[in-house]
């Protein structure tokens, strides 16, 4: 019987920092609508008419940002959403262009991280 004590890859961890400051965000529990595929950390969301959350595309008020990856391929997903924070405009993901500035709906300040 051979024993192996070598290194083994168990998985990967993303260390992408989406924050542009050390100010703590606030969070709410949400349901992300299914069939949107895998939503990456840093994805911006808005609240749809049915109360579920979808990828922000500029047609509705921005609600907040995901701080981890969620897979919505097989259906709705219970998650949490961060808002009232300072985000690095380079590190976020949306279905529309996001510029440096303040979003009054989500209370998110989009900045260039220092």
Structural key phrases:
Virus Head Decoration Protein, Chain: A; three-stranded antiparallel beta sheet; three-stranded mixed beta sheet
Structure overview:
The structure is a single chain. With 114 residues, the chain is mostly beta strands. The protein has one domain (26-111): Head decoration protein D (Virus Head Decoration Protein, Chain: A, Beta Barrel). 0% of the residues lie in helices and 34% in strands. It contains no helices and ten strands. The chain has strands at residues 26-32, 38-39, 44-47, 53-55, 62-65, 70-71, 77-83, 86-88, 101-103, 108-111. The strands form four sheets. It has a three-stranded antiparallel β-sheet with strand order 4-3-5, with no helix packed on it. A three-stranded mixed β-sheet has the order 8-10-9, with no helix packed on it. Strands 1-7 form a two-stranded antiparallel sheet. Strand 3 and strand 4 (53-55) form a beta hairpin. The model is unreliable at 9-14 (pLDDT under 50).
Structure summarized in a few sentences:
The chain has 114 residues and is an all-beta fold. The chain has a single domain (26-111), classed as Head decoration protein D (Virus Head Decoration Protein, Chain: A).
